[in-house]
Amino acid sequence: MRIGLLTVPFNNNYGGFLQAFALKTILNRMGHEVIIINRRRNRANSLKDRIKRFLIKWNLIEDKNAQKIKELSIYTNQFKQNYLEPITEEYYTTSELKKCLKLKFDCFVVGSDQVWRYEYARSSITDFYFSFLKDIKIKRFSYAASFGIDEMDYPQDLLNECKLLLKEFSYISVREDSGIKILINHFGLDSNIVKFVLDPTLLLDSKFYLSLFGDKFKKPDNPYLFTYILDEDEDKLSLIEDIKTYYDLERIDLKAQTGDISKLSPIAYVEEWLANIYYADMIITDSFHGTVFSILFNKPFWIYGNSSRGKSRFTSLLSIFGLEDRYIESKINFSDSLFSSKIDWVSVNKKHDRLKNESLFFLTNCINDIQKSVSLK
Question: What is the pLDDT of residue 61?
Fold first, then answer.
């Protein structure tokens, strides 16, 4: 089958790249062609914004923001070209998004990551429930979709619209227990319909990710603490310094495309980010996928809670592996006893294997069932 993968916009965020790569890889292994649908956020549409776009289009002014992003993306674009292609043209509106139908997809999947988070998508969110497929009979499903938060925050009219759109889905899966509760309590779905699955990055073996960087990035000579912090503040930096000093570790830090991008240097290779986690002696992060790969590579880690980016994503992930004690929300919460705490990786890996098999079973059944219906047409 030809499958359209609708996911979050790529903004030089390692987790965003890797979750799409992982789901695409799994579907490719099943024998299907996958094309990533490049739905961007709706453009700002004030008169000032429209005039600016007009002037940029005709080269009357320079698009400094686009130029800066191009500079930041010099390394990460290589990952997109090597592993994520084919990707459609950029779509900024629902009417533009409908152009992807000319690619004659057999089915669509939305996921993973925070594709259903209202705060991030706003006016474009109904497209992530496939509103652009209205009155079109084509199979669609979600894999490891995320609301990113504990409580429903959709306005009532939007919730009603998304309820109707969700009825057209053949299968629905989410990656957080909070997402299951939202779908049951606010969308009115039966608990037997909604399935919990792992983020797609956890469906691939650690050895597979190791093959991506191989000898290109080697282990540094000295032990180090790897930090991947999306939202820096003084408390996080102070805790990092305490842990770095206690364990006598050097610090290696990589950035994502967040905050004031004018202050950022080119974002490092995706493969370099993976290698830094793999070779690290310890990790501190406030990133969901920083957490995922710490678990996957069996690395000692602590998660500094990032409530603004969705606390439930972290607590749900940690709870399924019995790692709730790795979560902290401030330096005050970090007691001396945590310095010596150990992770039972045997137990964690057993849970991971079971959940991976269950998630792959769901995805395989979903795809096989859809393929049967497509072949009967």
Answer: 67
